[in-house]
Amino acid sequence: MKLVTAIIKPFKLDDVREAISEVGIEGLTVTEVKGFGRQKGHTELYRGAEYQVDFLPKVKLEIATNDDNVERLVEAISKAAYTGKIGDGKLFVYDLEQAVRIRTGEADAEAL
C-alpha cells in the first residue's frame, strides 16, 4: 500500500477530485495549508501599503491506495493539477505499512 500526498493550488481541487474518481479512487483527505516553494511568495497592495505574502494558500490531499493504482493516480493528479505556471505543486509517494477501518476492524487493503 502507498500514501500519495499532493500539494496543489486550491482552485484545482475539483478537477483533481474528478480525475481521481475516474481512475477508481474513492477516498481522500483534504487539508487547507499554506506554504511556498521556489516562488517564495509575492508582494500585494492593501489600502495603499505594500506588503510581502510569504506563505501562499495551497490544498494538501492525502490518498491511501494499493500499489497497483499508484502510477494511474499520480498521472491523474499531475494532469488535473497542471497549469504550467509556477506553484503548481508537488506529489509525494510514501510506503504505507498498515491501515485499519475503525468501524469494522478491516485491515490493510480491505480497509482502503
UniProtKB/TrEMBL annotation:
- The membrane spanning regions, by residue number, are none
* InterPro entries from the UniProt entry: N-reg_PII, N-reg_PII-like_a/b, N-reg_PII/ATP_PRibTrfase_C, N-reg_PII_urydylation_site
Residues with the modification O-UMP-tyrosine, per the entry, are 51
Q: Which GO terms describe its molecular function?
A: ATP binding; enzyme regulator activity
Q: GO cellular-component terms in the record? A: cytosol
One family name in Pfam for this protein: P-II
Matching SUPFAM superfamilies? GlnB-like
Record key words, sorted = Nucleotide-binding, Phosphoprotein
* One annotated GO biological process: regulation of nitrogen utilization
Q: Which domain of life is it from?
A: Bacteria
UniProt name for this protein: Nitrogen regulatory protein P-II 1
Q: Which organism is it from?
A: Neiella marina
